[in-house]
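Same chain as my last thread, 222 residues:
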Amino acid sequence: MNTPTASPSHHPKLNDSGKPVVIKHPSTPTTQASWFDPKAAATFIPGGPVPAELNGVPFATWTDAPTTDDGWEQVDGLNPDLAEPAMKMSPGLNASAGVVVVERDGRVWVVHPTNGFGGYLATWPKGRVEGGLSFQATAVREAWEEAGLKVRITGILGDFDRTTTRTRYYVGERAYGTPAEAGWESQACTLAPIDALPSLLNGSADAPVLAALKARLAPGET
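reply #2:
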């Protein structure tokens, strides 16, 4: 899963400056058998093959994704009924937001930052809250930009201190999109059983997020 290959390649998408992105150690997609096995970790690469659908939800390019802050604030997938507590900021950290996307078969989506950016081999989509964008809109946008997925927010996982940010993580579900359209910041996306996540998530800041996720998904919890 996400096994690096020897020869560098180029990401199929250009970076924000319109320049090519070299992937020093490209990830290797897993076989088709992993796509449909809830006990298997399935790795997808940008521009690579994906099934037509999974768990009844299509994999297809989100062609009308917003391109402005106003558009993201009105995008389908936000949860206006969700009570949003004020974030208690920690000194020296910036506010950010992300989302843990849980598939209908119980597996969880993670992204593999291109060239291990920030020291992360795998993590969840997130980004800084900027330009007056809300936490929810930021989280939905980051899932699209980093994983190619259109998500629907279903709950709040919690606020967590990370290296440079205090991040509000939501829980969400995939509504559309495809990991084949993951942006240049991610060289692969993996759909992994929750028990496989500890071996994928190498960043210490992800440990409390995973613990909160496991508690939320435990039998009898909502």
